[in-house]
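Tip: read the tokens left to right.
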């Protein structure tokens, strides 16, 4: 139903899935989740997969679910014309890859188990990740989507195409490779080597003692600054609603 691949997102919104009542997920342990639509998905880490939905019947009856290998895909039947928003609650093993397409919202308590992790956003959706734990973290944003996250990653590869807004000030990374095309904005913490390529008016802010270098065309800029006392005390604790993404 949905797919994304390392900076070159190829996202479809087909309705190949089935209603939740017809989904056979007994014993399933997906580690990837993809979601397309205007709804809200709340993901909690757990040993096994459970799914529940809340909302008007006219909306929830149009939801579609699909299990394909390690991926759980959630979307809507047809072209999403049903009014109203559903809330989908998912418990699953800690995901290592998340894809959000459309205008919906996804809240995830954890992303990554210490190895590779990936976050993909296409459209105007909002995402919040309580804690990231990754050796190699890849984040791809196409459009005006927003992401707020905390945690740590040894390396970060970040690509923003459009006006995406990433509040990662409570995410601490080692080395980072950043690419922004458009007016996108990102902020994160690093004491490593940060290389940024910016085309347009995009802005990257790095908090810490990073070794920063930038190639820019247009008015875009890379800002590198030392941590404040408040930022140092916050560390890489979980992102909260008061942290203020987009």
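Filled-in amino acids:
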């Amino acid at each position: 139903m949905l797919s994304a691949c390392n900076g070159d997102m190829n996202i479809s919104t087909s309705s190949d899935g089935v209603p939740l009542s017809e989904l056979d997920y007994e014993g399933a342990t997906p580690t990837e989740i993809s979601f397309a639509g205007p709804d809200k998905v709340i993901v909690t880490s757990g040993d096994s997969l459970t799914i529940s939905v809340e909302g008007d019947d006219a909306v929830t009856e149009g939801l579609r679910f699909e299990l394909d290998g390690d991926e759980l895909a959630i979307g809507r039947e047809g072209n999403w014309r049903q009014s109203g928003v559903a809330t989908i609650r998912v418990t699953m093993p800690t995901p290592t890859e998340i894809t959000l397409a459309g205008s919906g919202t996804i809240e995830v308590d954890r992303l990554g188990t210490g190895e590779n992790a990936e976050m993909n956003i296409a459209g105007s959706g909002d995402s919040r990740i309580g804690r990231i734990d990754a050796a190699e973290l890849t984040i791809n944003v196409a459009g005006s989507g927003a992401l707020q996250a905390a945690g740590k990653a040894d390396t970060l590869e970040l690509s923003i195409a459009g006006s995406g807004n990433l509040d990662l000030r409570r995410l601490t990374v080692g080395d980072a490779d950043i690419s922004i095309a458009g007016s996108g904005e990102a902020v994160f913490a690093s004491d490593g080597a940060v290389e940024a390529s910016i085309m347009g008016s995009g802005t990257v802010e790095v908090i810490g003692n990073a070794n920063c270098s930038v190639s820019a065309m247009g008015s875009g800029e890379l800002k590198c600054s030392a941590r404040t006392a408040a930022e140092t005390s916050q560390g890489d604790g979980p992102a909260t609603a008061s942290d203020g993404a987009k």
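The chain has two domains: 1-95, 112-231. The radius of gyration is 18 Å.
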